[in-house]
């Protein structure tokens, strides 16, 4: 698939460009990324270049992972990144086969606290469900990443429990993580059943 844009009055999701390299490099110096994300660490400029020039375009071309730049519709600067990885198929209780995607996201530190991720997740989920690219969207974060959990909770994900991460971390381990999912047709209001620890501010 070719990269394309999604937008609302609050966020613009479009193609990452070589001109975003400095911002990706700067934002990824945040030590919270070392703790909670799978990005390489220490994060070097070559990692930002490889991400933008190779990893992201390869994901679009192979239909393996669709990654967008998250911007303010009023300005071209990069605020963060959101991606949908197509992770495979699962068999539902009624024996139907569901195509599953996994959502991942981050914001540069100055751009947090504005509700940008729930909005961006809504745009990506609406598009992927409407195009029947996936039936089910999976979310996970490492235990303790309350900001990520609150963003998923606010977006309507249902909590499914603690289990090893699906994605391998940089040390090749699969640490215990909070998991949730959103199905096509689910309403997007915050759902009950989340543990207090995942939502504790
Ligand atoms: C996850 C992330 C994208 C969320 O960004 P955001 O939607 O702007 O959300 P905020 O940063 O405002 O945080 C979301 C909520 O968690 C709360 N929160 C933020 N940091 C927190 C912390 N350290 N402890 C407890 N609560 C926290 C905020 O108060 C907010 O709650 P509210 O909206 O009800 O007031 C952002 O925090 C981030 O980029 N983190 C680093 C990368 C990351 O962890 N990505 C997810 C990987 S699974």
From TrEMBL:
What are the entry keywords? Acyltransferase, Transferase
**Region described as Disordered:** 181-201
Q: Which family does it belong to?
A: Belongs to the acetyltransferase family. RimJ subfamily.
Asked if the record carries the keyword Acyltransferase, the reply is: yes
Record-annotated N-acetyltransferase domain positions: 11-176
Q: Which organism is it from?
A: Cryobacterium gelidum
The superkingdom listed in its UniProt entry is Bacteria
| One example GO MF annotation | acyltransferase activity, transferring groups other than amino-acyl groups
SUPFAM superfamilies with a match to the protein in the record = Acyl-CoA N-acyltransferases (Nat) (SSF55729)
Q: What is the official name of this protein in its record?
A: N-acetyltransferase
